[in-house]
Write a structure and sequence with these properties.
The complex is a heterodimer. By secondary structure, chain A is an alpha+beta fold. Chain A contains eleven helices and ten strands. In chain A, the strands form three sheets. Chain A has a four-stranded mixed sheet, with helices on one face. Chain A has a four-stranded antiparallel sheet with strand order 2-3-7-6, with no helix packed on it. A two-stranded antiparallel ribbon of chain A has the order 9-10. In chain A, α5 runs antiparallel to α7 and α7 runs antiparallel to α10. Chain A starts with 6 loop residues before the first helix and ends with a helix. In chain B, α7 runs antiparallel to α8. The chains are: A alpha+beta, B alpha+beta. At the A-B interface, α7, α8, α9 and α11 of A face α7, β10, α8 and α11 of B.
Chain lengths: 379, 394
């Protein structure tokens, strides 16, 4: 169950659709990119998202949130995907809130969750150490010294890393690189001494950063969850993140498809609209089928989290693999059908394609997740 | 205990008493219960099971009681299906009458016709076949030419059908005929007649799988009583289209079935390619199996979503337009993968060197090729999606 929306969810979806179409259309991302905006996202729009309750959508009401749940957040991400909006929804609302919910102490929750809900605090997950997603290949070390820990290492592709107030750093407190055990998650203010953050400009014009930790000293109270057992938090956190990106990609491919459908109904060659040619019609029909299938996958994955089902890892890999792959197929086809204008910066389809590739590489590409799905399903 | 609980308890008890033990085992192909006047019962329990279910109307559980059906509500039928699954019961009756003709008769036939044909269908007494395609009318079905002339006290039918499933074993045919040659869709009528009528001949066609489930069917001056016309004269296309819907739904379900369900294909891969640390030993095969399992997982979620949307009154019908296309292409990929991972053991044709399952693999693979041709080709389905759903012009 859970493959259809409730009335409240339909309303939320409408609110989100309107918000992104009006406040964060694709033009907004172009402006941020062209003007080399130092934040890489629109702070004014972020404030409005907080007022609408989007930033606190996973935060319990007791901490000032709207507690709408994972399906609600998925619907917002899907609408953000339609305009490829650059927002802290993934880094802060999804990953930040969930990390604190999963591993935070009462004190951490009380201090951090209301700040997130109010839109006052941004977080970023500092996980990856290489060009390919690998949540256990962690060499960044955290050595105990008295009542403190000293962290050293380098992180890459930290989403929203350069604007985050707090960094969620995955470090190794024991074991060898590639061990699942021995990982510990630290919550560290980004202004801490020894933390060097360098913004990286990505193809999709969304935020990312490289972070170098040099003798960063934190106390025990910076630990999120338990020492050496960080993977217990990291795995469900990443699964939610993967499903969130899949939801964003669903919106992205739907919009790419809709724009292309409109385009081929107008563009004329040989005295006819090109949408009358069967060579294009059948490819559109195939894409339509893929879109419908992807919609089912994403809705099921979101409700798996909401209902705390035990198949979350499987459906997260299913969603991330299929949406990564299908978004590549659909954005490629849509660009081709736009012809020469699709190659211009003026048309949006190129932006959709760029975002699709970066999203596909985030938290595991299609190959990574087919492998993981196979392992989870016992083959 | 509410009514549904009571119904469940009664159903359980009745099934316990009436479903023979051998009908709770996997069904070999040659024990498929198609019923009909010429049925041969390899296992007598099959007939007992069909008769018991038929008498209760449970071979067509939701059809109205006055036409021999079970008269069950949707909820009761769900309970019945659950209880049947729980005891692993075989289907009591496989029938084009139930899957295709019956729903159309319920919608379009006269009261007399319903009373005459539906109870026989429910009890498995008459086996039906479908006379649709012709040598010159495949994808362009409405181009059919089988001529039906009004001879005052009867119709006279002349022409040829092809791909008539089990025409050589069927008792009656539901047939599309041309009653007006001056127009296309508006000149087609829907006619029922006995396959034992003078002038009917069915010749089985040997297919690439070696099986002969289809026939060429010839009609030479076949006399058909006039009350065998269903619906109005020249209005048969509406009925034909509705029936095709039922057929497409039936075919698109094929990708989900047989071969041990979802995990079947991964176990098969382990058996034939090898296993290392619980994984399929060959990384490429493993990736292919993962793709197949994911596609099938995704498709079943889409079927489920459509049902839930329909129940919630949110159905747009858009998703269901992809089922025939997606389901059949999925089933073809699945069968390709199966023979690939079985290697040469999956390419045996006959003899002792191969197990029954191994011999079935290439034949199922060959049979599956027809899924995207029969009941509306993949290309026709794509035309339907691009024109009716996406609104792309001619």
């Amino acid at each position: 169950m859970g493959l259809v929306l409730t009335e409240e969810q339909v309303l939320l979806k409408e609110t989100a659709t309107q918000f992104f179409q009006e406040k964060l259309p694709v033009a907004n991302l172009r402006t941020l990119r062209n003007e080399k905006d130092k934040d890489g996202f629109d702070r004014k729009a972020w404030k409005e998202m907080a007022d609408l309750g989007f930033s606190g959508i996973l935060v319990p009401e007791a901490y000032g949130g709207t507690e709408f749940g994972p399906v609600g957040l998925g619907l917002i991400l899907e609408q953000a995907g339609r305009t490829i909006a650059a927002t802290p929804l993934l880094s802060t609302v999804l990953l930040g809130t969930t990390a604190i919910q999963l591993g935070g102490t009462d004190t951490q929750r009380q201090t951090l969750l209301p700040e997130i809900a109010a839109g006052h605090m941004l977080l970023a997950l500092a996980l990856e150490e290489g060009p390919h997603h690998n949540p256990t290949r962690i060499a960044t070390s955290a050595k105990a010294e008295g009542g403190a820990y000293i962290l050293n290492g380098e992180k890459t592709f930290v989403l929203d890393g350069h604007v985050a107030d707090q960094l969620i750093v995955v470090a190794r407190t024991s074991g060898e690189v590639n061990d699942r055990n021995g990982l510990t998650i630290f919550l560290i203010p980004s202004k801490t001494d020894g933390m060097s953050v360098t913004r990286t400009i990505m193809t999709d014009s969304h935020n990312a950063a490289n972070i170098k930790l040099t003798n960063v000293k934190v106390t025990n109270s910076a630990i999120l969850g338990s020492k050496d057992a960080g993977a217990d938090i990291l795995e469900p956190l990443l699964d939610f993140g993967r499903i969130g990106i899949a939801a964003e990609l669903l919106g992205l491919i739907q919009e790419s498809f809709d724009q292309t459908l409109a385009y081929i109904k107008e563009r004329k060659q040989f005295g006819k609209v090109i949408g009358s040619f069967q060579a294009l019609q059948h490819r559109m029909a195939e894409m339509f089928a893929e879109l419908e299938v992807c919609r089912s996958i994403v809705l099921d994955a979101l409700s798996a989290i909401e209902d705390r089902r035990n198949d979350v890892p499987s459906v997260a890999s299913l969603a991330k693999a299929r949406l990564s792959e299908t978004s590549r197929h659909i954005t490629n086809e849509c660009l081709q059908m736009h012809g020469g204008v699709g190659m211009t910066d003026e048309y949006d389809i190129g932006l959709f394609m760029k975002r699709a590739r970066v999203a596909a590489a985030t938290f595991g590409n299609a190959g990574f997740h087919r492998d993981r799905y196979a392992t989870l399903e016992g083959f | 205990m509410d009514n549904l609980d009571q119904f469940r308890a009664d159903t359980k008890a009745w099934l316990e008493a009436n479903c023979p033990p051998s009908m709770r085992t996997p069904m070999p192909e040659d024990e498929s219960p198609w019923g009909g006047r010429r049925a041969k019962w390899k296992n007598p329990d099959s007939k007992k099971w069909m008769d018991a279910m038929g008498a209760r109307g449970w071979t067509a559980p939701t059809w109205p009681k006055q036409y021999g059906g079970g008269g069950l509500s949707k909820e009761e039928n769900k309970v019945l299906q659950q209880e049947l699954r729980a005891i692993k019961a075989r289907p009591a009756l496989m029938s084009f009458g139930i899957w295709m003709l019956g729903p159309a008769l319920l919608e379009f036939a006269t009261e007399e016709q319903k009373k005459e044909y539906l109870p026989q269908i429910v009890r498995g007494e008459i086996r039906w076949c479908q006379g649709y395609s012709e040598p010159g009318a495949g994808s362009d079905l409405a181009g059919l030419q089988t001529k039906c002339e009004d001879k005052d006290d009867h119709y006279l039918v002349n022409g040829q059908k092809i791909w008539t499933s089990y025409a050589d074993k069927a008792d009656w045919i539901f047939c599309l005929v041309r009653t007006d040659a001056s127009v296309k869709h508006e000149g087609i009528s829907f006619l029922l007649f006995d396959m034992e009528s003078q002038g009917v001949e069915a010749r089985p066609i040997t297919m690439i799988s070696g099986a002969s489930p289809f026939c060429e069917t010839f009609f030479t001056d076949v006399k058909v009583p006039k009350h065998h016309l269903v619906g109005e004269l020249n209005k048969g296309w509406t009925i034909a289209k509705r029936l095709l819907q039922h057929e497409r739904e039936m075919i698109s379900g094929m990708g989900m079935g047989s071969g041990g369900g979802a995990s079947g294909i991964s176990n098969l891969a382990k058996d034939y390619v090898g296993e290392k640390d619980g994984r399929i030993a060959d990384a490429t095969v493993r990736d292919s199996v993962a793709r197949q399992r994911m596609d099938s997982h995704a498709f079943s979620l889409t079927l489920q979503r459509t049902m839930e949307e329909a129940k919630a009154g949110q159905s747009t019908g858009a998703a269901s337009s992809i089922f025939k296309y997606y389901g059949t292409e999925l089933n073809k990929r699945r069968n390709e993968l199966i023979i690939e991972l079985m290697g040469t053991q999956g390419l045996g044709w006959e003899g002792e060197a191969f197990s029954e399952e191994e011999l079935a693999a290439p034949r199922n693979w060959l049979r599956s090729k027809g899924n995207s041709i029969e009941g509306g080709t993949t290309e026709v389905q794509m035309n339907v999606i691009s024109k009716r759903v996406l609104g792309l012009p001619d």
